[in-house]
Amino acid sequence: MDHLELEHLKTLLRECAGVEEGVDLDGDVLDVPFLALGYDSLALLQTTGRIERDYDVTLDEEGLDEAETPRDYLALINRALSARTAV
What's the 3-state SS for 67-84? Predict the structure, then answer.
């Protein structure tokens, strides 16, 4: 896989960190901050670990700190996946 879509990210978030009551991940969440979705840094750390393990990539730690929305996070993941396939 060289590209991760929002739907797959939602699945990984649900599996790794669950879904907070009252949050609709099925809506338009691409630009909603993770904190508003109920995902704190620990939830993202768990999800990142799963992505790194499943896709054999290492995500940029500084970029992870700056990724505040699913759009930011997907861009970071997809850059890493593209770099992996380019090697």
Answer: CCCHHHHHHHHHHHHHHH
pLDDT of residue 87: 63
Q: Give how far Cα 61 sits from Cα of 26, 29, 73, Å.
A: 27, 23, 11
Section 29-54 average pLDDT: 95
Q: How far is CA 40 from CA 13, 37, 49, in A?
A: 11, 9, 14
Structure tokens belonging to residue 54? 């499943």
Q: In whole angstroms, what is the distance from residue 57 CA to residue 83 CA?
A: 9
Output the pTM of the full model. Answer: 0.89
- Mean pLDDT across 53-60: 93
